[in-house]
Amino acid sequence: MELRQYQRAGVEFLKSNKYALLADEPGLGKTAQALTAAAELGIEDVLVVCPASVKHAWMYQSSLWAPDMPYPTVITYDAISRKKQDKESVWGLIIFDESHYLKNPKAKRTRECIGIGVKSLAAQADKVWCLTGTPVLNRPIELYPALRAFCPHLLGKYRDFYSFGRRYCQAHQTVWGWDTTGASHTDELAGILKSFMLRRTVREVGDQVPDNIITVERIDVSDELRYLILRERANALNAAQERHKIAGLKIPTTIEFVKDLMESEEKVVVWYWHRDVALEMGEQLSDFKPLHIGGDTPVDKRPKIIKDFHYLVQHRVLLAQLGAAGTGTDGLQHACHTAVFAEIDYAPKRIEQAMSRLRRIGQKDKVRSYFIVVPGSIEEDIVSALEYKENVIRVLTGDDKRLGGGDNGLSSLALPRKTKEITEFKNQEE
User: Fold this and answer.
1) In sequence order, what are the beta bridge partners of 179?
2) Binning pLDDT at 50, 70 and 90, where does residue 316 land?
3) In the chain, what are the helix, strand and coil shares in percent, each to the nearest 5?
4) CA torsion 37→38→42→43, rounded to 10°?
């Protein structure tokens, strides 16, 4: 597997720091960089703490980027609170993925993971790396727990919570309490962060990434999902019922992923196939005031919906049905550059049409397409083939001299081999 130039710089940054925050924008390959750095350092006892939605992805990416290194132990943030940690164990490296989950210094999860003192999980590690794609400098208070835990010397006289808040968060007393939601002296804080944090945006490394960054998010496989996958494959020509059930079981993970993504994205298009899936997602994502284009949406009403999605800041999610909105819905490229495929169509052409809604004249940013798939499913085969096709086109047109470099997992001109299903994690929680 070959890293891109900016990823190689990220690997060297991590390798040279005991404590580090890698804050690249989503889609730039933070997982690949962290795993490569750990492998090159020869660290074998790695613990990854992450949201449930990306747990399986860590195991999958480990088989690609660090094949000679033992699988990391992967545990979720929720499990940290449920499971008593072994205070005697010492890890060579702990990686806190989506570390913005640890933004509240008063939260039990934050205290248990990176709280000050020997009882925190971070205190049991030789190295600690935090990964996040959120725009951290927009909310400086969210940086405080990590800075206080790992490099208080950088904060100097502003190391206590209230001093930090007053200096960098415009903190002030209100009738509701202490308000630290603001930002101040951000240039000064950015200077402090230089030795601890590395952040690159898609625009900054645009010449090194394709116009459409495809990321495949492989979710955990429950016994029920595994059974449905077997049924789907055994009856591939008429697997609609199993496909529908699989989609329903994916909803909680998809919702969690979209909510995490909204921490760093202004607007997102979520593609689906089944109407009941859209209804459930609409309810769960109600905080983002979702709009909807489905098969029953009159054609003459669709331009107004797209216009509202573009111009009205409160509408941050558009739920779009693949069959209905995949064609004839121009204008999405002006509204956003990020799409999540909660479901896919078994016809790859329809998926390509959906992706092209954002990859049109007028799009000013690199497009990011996330696919939520179940390992071993027909969906995974289709997305892998589509991803492979995109990579081949880039090579043939000279847009990319070699394949790979993201978190997607495909890197050879040969059709991708089927990655073995990972059914057990080392020290997996019950």
Assistant:
1) 172
2) very high
3) 45, 15, 40
4) 160
Instruction: Provide CATH code, domain 211-396.
Output: 3.40.50.300
Quote the pLDDT of residue 88. Answer: 60
How many other C-beta atoms are found inside a 10 Å radius of the C-beta of residue 196?
18
State yes or no: pLDDT of 307 exceeds 90. Answer: yes
Highest mean pLDDT: which of 211-220, 232-241, 405-414?
A: 211-220
C-alpha–C-alpha distance, residues 293 and 178, integer Å: 42
User: In the sheet that 317-321 helps form, which strands lie side by side, from edge to edge?
Assistant: 212-218, 367-373, 338-341, 268-272, 317-321, 291-293
Domain with CATH 3.40.50.300 in the chain: 211-396
User: How far from each other are the two terminal CA atoms of the chain, in whole angstroms?
Assistant: 33
The answer to whether the Cα torsion of 278, 280, 282, 285 is positive or negative is negative
How does residue 430 score in pLDDT terms, banded at 50, 70 and 90? very low
The dihedrals phi and psi of 231, each to the nearest 5 degrees, come to -65, -40
CA dihedral 413, 418, 419, 424 (to 10 degrees): 170
Confidence at 414, pLDDT banded by 50, 70, 90: very low
319-366 per-position pLDDT tens digit: 999 988 766 678 899 999 999 999 988 777 788 888 888 988 888 888
Looking only at the bridges linking them, the beta strands covering 19-22 and 73-76 are unpaired
Q: Tell me: the pLDDT tens digits for 365-410?
A: 889 999 998 888 888 888 888 777 766 665 655 555 443 334 443 3
Give the fold, CATH level 3, of 5-198: Rossmann fold (3.40.50)
Dihedral sign computed on CA atoms, order 144, 149, 150, 154: positive
The backbone torsions φ and ψ at residue 145, rounded to the nearest 5 degrees and listed phi first, read -55, -45
273: three-class secondary structure by DSSP:
coil
CA distance 261 to 338: 9
From the CB of residue 223, how many other CB atoms can be counted at a distance below 10 Å?
A: 7
Identify the sign of the CA torsion 336, 211, 130, 170: negative
Q: Which two tokens stand for residue 320?
A: 């779009």
